[in-house]
Amino acid sequence: MTAVAAPLTQDGRSGIWGWITTVDHKRIGILYGVTAFTFFLIGGIEALLVRTQLAQADGTLLSAEAYNQLFTMHGLTMVFLVVMPTASAFTNYFLPIMLGARDVAFPRLNAFSYWLFLFAGLMIYTSFFAGGAPDGAWVGYAPLSGQITEAVRMDFWSVGLQLLGVASIVSSANFVATCFTMRAPGMTMLRMPVFAWMSLVVAFLLLFSLPSVAIGLFQLFLDRNFGALFYEAAAGADPLLWQHLFWIFGHPEVYVLVLPAMGIVSEVLPVFSRKPLFGYEFVVFSGVAIGFIGFGVWSHHMFTSGMGPVAEAGFGVATMIIAIPTGVKIFNWIGTTWGGRLNMSTPMLFSLGFIAMFVIGGLSGITHAVVPSDYQQHDTYYVVGHFHYVLFGGAIFGYVAGVYYWFPKWTGRMLDERIGKIHFWLMLLGFNLTFGPMHILGLNGMPRRTYRYPEGLGFEFWNLMATIGSYIIGISLLFFIWNIIRSRRNGTLSGSDPWDGRTLEWSIPSPPPEHNFDEVPLVRSLDDFWHTKYAEDEQGRAVRIPAVTGAEIDVFAEEEGEAHGDIHMPSPSYYPALSALGLVILGYGFVYLSFGWIAVAVGGVVALWGLFGWSLEPVTRSEHH
Amino acid sequence: MPAERRHPSPDTVTGDRPRSARTLDRAGLLGVAVLVLASCSGSGPQSALSPEGPIARDLDGLWDLVYMLAVIVFVVVMAVFMYSILRFRERKGETREPRQIHGNTVLEIAWTIVPAVLLAVLAVPTVRGIFDVRATAEGPDVVQVNVTGHQWWWEFEYVDLASADGHTLVTASELHIPAGVQVQLTMTSRDVIHSFWVPPLNGKRDVVPGRITELVLEADPEVADKDFGYGAGVIPGQCAEFCGLSHADMRLRVHVQSPADFDAWVAAQLEPAVVPAEGAAAAGFETFNAVCAACHQATVVDTDGSVSVLGEDRVVEVDGVTFSAQYGPDLGHFGSRATMAGAILDNTAEHVAQWIDNPSDLKPMAPERNDLEAGRVLGMPSYGLDSGQISELVELLEAWR
User: At B206, which helix (H) or strand (E)?
Assistant: First the structure.
């Protein structure tokens, strides 16, 4: 390893101020991850309360009013405050490193996205203490969401989602720019890891879909606060307009939630099978295809809404088509394991669990595409079962695999394998016990979003099973948390490459220095790091190349300025956090109109101050080492 | 070995693979068993898997088809998957490096085309099924019912069934239909989006303010004599689109009757309610006129034989169709209904008294937010009636069969 005098990290700032002003993508990734996990626990408690209420017929634990807030916030939290930020956490941390870059294209914009996410999420949660949380379901269908304007619950919802949308849009622009402009020399698009590709597709999905829901939310906000009539049937408007605008975002959104997890699985499987991803190009292109087709199926959420048979048939067939690229991915993953030498580590178990659970969830999705059958399934617990299989058994299992896989890179220590396996099996059992029976409940006639159900309809047994399952999930999470806490202190030291990995993040220390790479790598192939360790014999089997010190990665150091130690890293800044704070103060103002105009003004001034400071400050620190 | 690997290799870190692989076997088999067993259940009275009419049977047939295909695909894919992870898992001490295979174009084409073919097979009956379900029931024998969804109860108007005085049959929460006959529902909502759903008879259809949606119901002839736990021929249903506080409590009952019984029911419902001449019920009638008729209609015949409708006619006009849209259910035949409050409670004197005293005790509502001018009705308020007035009203309402 070439000795490099590392530039002063975080510009010398330490402690909380260091974290608030950081523009280091790795720290921002950790902030996203810790925040998302905290919201995951909160959303999980909301779910446990819901499940406890439903464990018996005519439950009395929760009033209808409390219940409606809890299930709304559970959905909102899990979608916007857990799964999306978790994907962001991984993308933030690893996209630049996988591309051989030192940071994202716009580091301060990156920080801004995080702070806006945190402040907006907190803002929405303060509603619990300000008269009640949003209670119109996470999808907030008009006209119900516009009906009660004296209470501001649904204003917290619409304003909060707008702010979260801004955070996602700028983050997506950042990641697109990073993928297109900051790849290391030699890294063509088709040499990017699959995880990077999925992050890129997701960024495009968000850029094109968020405007639709933003428009819908603006219209709803104007209806609620300024007497607009966008969704007023009495004035001749069509309430279905809301559903279209929402689901044009909402459907691509579900691919936003799961594609990064699919990317992680595509990274883990080859490493623990000790062979390349089967059909790399097909996996990449099926991800792109899912992104495209995903924009053409949105009204499959609306089969019973009264669109008419032609629209229903069109969207039904389109939904069937999207199963094809999804199947391609699954078959390629199985092909990756075939003929390999499988290491059943915890990341591998969670990735394999992802595949099994996603097959189930994907198949139940195909049953939805059989439209006449969906007339029975829609708006019942069958749907709740379906989407939890793809979003929990799928996305969350994939992200947990990522945690077990990359924990050594973040911390320099391994997570404990025995505790990890207990976590996996408990979570798998609890998850299936919770959501499997929901398919039965739905077809047996149990609608969703119901605070109670009566005796006599045959719902009691499976609801009780589902509640027990949800508590088992909770217990499995305790093992997860214990594993993380214990391993941070006492975990086995990992070194830079504990898993004999294939991608660039394993070529740098654990945890990485702020500048990631001492020297920018020159990339000669897909899985370039693996190819510096292994060649292939005549039968195509991997053969270890004798270890060489230092020059494992080619050096690209043509310019004078790139001489040892002369690495320019962007300076920390508090302006991103300040700008985000200003926007959220402004958001509060909009929630509490009309005396909120004062907060709108104050927030606007703070945000402008932040943006001006941001524009005028120098980007990189002046010291050279 | 690379210089940095001073730590335990992955082989020793993971440990007991064979045991975890056997457990994987068992888990997989358990999962399949649950799946198969689950498909055998479907006995609830509100179950889509127990169709009681031809349309629901067609939907169930499509479900059977796609479920069977899904189970086959699941078993095949999982078999290959499980085989792969069991066959190729690392044995203790194994050091063989696998062949670094990058893909196989023939396989890629095959597993793109085969699913496409399977889906095409599914698409044909799917599209046909959509157009069948969406077809409007036509003909002179079809019973025409207008449905108006309210927060949080269902209003039904039999538009072709009118008394001699021209008053159509209007009722709430209980939908009586003749067995073996098509019933055409023409639906809208008075406020927010709801969804009409009686699974054993058909899939659901949303009811949307400002729009008309349609649904056909038809029960098999023998259903009139079947008891699902609510009396002969009674099938439960409920709203299936989240509509606020009492979404879970916006239920209904379909009473499937023989054509003769249905005709008798219609005739009785078309008779005006008798204004009681004396007694507690007569006092109750005074209260009804003064308080209840502001929101609840009733067609009554007075002691002098004159027929009148208490309360104002309230309607919504959608696409040229007039829908009855009262603030509260028509009460002219309240005593004949088996349930009340949106089909969540049995119609007993005790429940009625509790309801009149404070409706929000029995069903979560927000009458304090009522804004009748703006058309927002979120429940029945309490009128502070004393127990005497309440028992008189109960006498009246139970007498109105």
Answer: strand B205-207
**Do B201 and B56 contact (CB within 8 A), yes or no?**
yes
Residue from the list A304, A309, A496 with its beta carbon closest to the beta carbon of B131: A309
Residue B263 pLDDT level (bands cut at 50, 70, 90): very high
CA angle, corner A430, sides to A427 and A436, nearest 5? 120
Q: Are A446 and A580 members of one domain? A: no
Test A547 with B112 for CB contact under 8 angstroms.
Answer: no
Structure tokens at A54: 């439903």
Task: Identify all chain B residues contacting A278, using CB atoms and an 8 Å cutoff.
Answer: 101-104
Q: Which of A162, A94, A68 is nearest to A124 (CA)?
A: A162
Give B274's strand partners. B301
B100-156, pLDDT tens digit by residue?
999 999 999 999 999 999 999 999 999 999 999 999 998 899 999 999 999 999 999
Q: Which of A153, A301, A344 to mutate to test the interface with B (most CBs of B within 10 A)?
A: A344
**Which residue on chain B is closest to A151 by alpha carbon?**
B369
Q: Looking at the structure, do residues A168 and A260 belong to the same domain, yes or no?
A: yes
Surface of B (146-185) touching A: CB under 8 A: none
- Spacing of C-alpha A571 from chain mean position: 27
- C-alpha–C-alpha distance, residues A395 and A388, integer Å: 9
Model confidence at A430, in pLDDT bands (50, 70, 90)? very high
Across residues A277-304, what is the average pLDDT? 97
Q: What is the mean pLDDT of chain A?
A: 94
Q: Does residue A614 share a domain with residue A525?
A: no
> How far are the Cα atoms of A100, A293, A356 from residue A383, in angstroms, in the given order?
41, 21, 18
On the 0-12 / 13-18 / 19+ scale of CB atoms within 10 A, A99 is buried
CATH code (residue A91): 1.20.210.10
Same domain? A458 vs A602: no
**How many domains does chain A fold into?**
2
pLDDT band at residue A548 under the 50/70/90 scheme? low
Residue B248 main-chain phi, psi, to 5 deg: -70, -20
The A residues from 381 to 420 touching B (CB cutoff 8 Å) are: 414, 417-418
**Distance between CA atoms of residues A401 and B113, nearest Å:** 31
In a domain, A1, yes or no: no
Judge whether A4 lies within some domain: no
Distance of CA B263 to the CA centre of its chain: 25
Query: A541, A563, A585 — which closes off a domain?
Result: A563
Task: Kindly state whether residues A559 and A598 are assigned to the same domain.
Answer: no
Chain A stretch 488-527, residues whose beta carbon is closer than 8 A to a beta carbon of chain B = 492-500
ipTM rounded to 2 decimals: 0.94
| In-domain check, residue A568 | no
User: How far is it, in rounded angstroms, from Cα A207 to Cα A592?
Assistant: 29
Determine, yes or no, domain membership for A578: yes
- pTM, rounded to two decimals: 0.93
- B140 lies within 8 A of chain A by CB: no
Q: Which of A306, A373, A494 sits opposite B205 (nearest CB)?
A: A306
- Type of residue at B21: A
Q: Is A535 on the interface with B (CB under 8 A)?
A: no
Q: pLDDT over 90 for what percent of chain A? A: 91
Q: Which amino acid is at A482?
A: W
**How crowded is the C-beta side of B358, counted as CA atoms within 13 Å?**
4
Tell me: pLDDT of A561 over 80: no
Contacts of B324 (CB under 8 A, 6+ apart): B146, B148, B155, B157, B168, B170, B313, B314, B315
Could you list the residue range(s) of the whole structural domain that residue A613 is in? 574-625
Residue A390 corresponds to which amino acid? V
- Chain A residue whose CA is closest to B111: A328
Three-state secondary structure string covering A444-464: CCCECCCCCCCCCCCCHHHHH
Distance CA B26, CA A429 (A): 12
